[in-house]
Amino acid sequence: MPMLSPLPHPSSRAAIVEELLGLFPARVDRLLEPFVGSGALTLAAAQQDLANYFVVGDELEALVAIWQLMIERPSVLCDGVAAARRGSPPADGPVRLLFDVTQGVEQGTLDRGLEQAHELLRGRAGTLAGDYSLLMRAAQPEDLVYLDPPPVGGPSAWHPDWDEGLDADRFRDVLDAAIQRNIRFVVTTDLDLGLRKQVIGGVTVWLSY
Model-level pTM? Predict the structure, then answer.
């Protein structure tokens, strides 16, 4: 059974993660996830050793910083959130974001989840803060990119100020450029990408391979 992500996320694909993992090609060097969110798929893939290395990214720097600390020093997150819950609200940054999004999660459950993710990813994972196109350009043919973008025309859960949502035309252009470079990717989106697709649990999944 895949481990649950310590980061709750309303659009998490945790419910279909096993089916998504079943679509992976036989050999993957690096798994790249440019819209990391809860990172449910990255954690499940690491649990099953389906790639040699994992890179997570996002445009929201505080979210990427959470993942960086989760990989390297989860105690900073555990202690910071615990202090905030005792009445010492942190400044803006990774601890504040984690505090905000885990209001309904018990401290012990959060601590265990962060430590488990750390044990899975330490020494074999990295992060990249920035636009999703950065990781797409960094991908190599032996890698696999998983993209779960925000909706078109609406804000994402992690980006409440991102009112315009995903730029569909630019997203297609980035994917087309990746196809020209023989990059393998999986996308979960309602946007019509004109690629091979499957529908899993009501979610449309597009594949470049």
Answer: 0.93
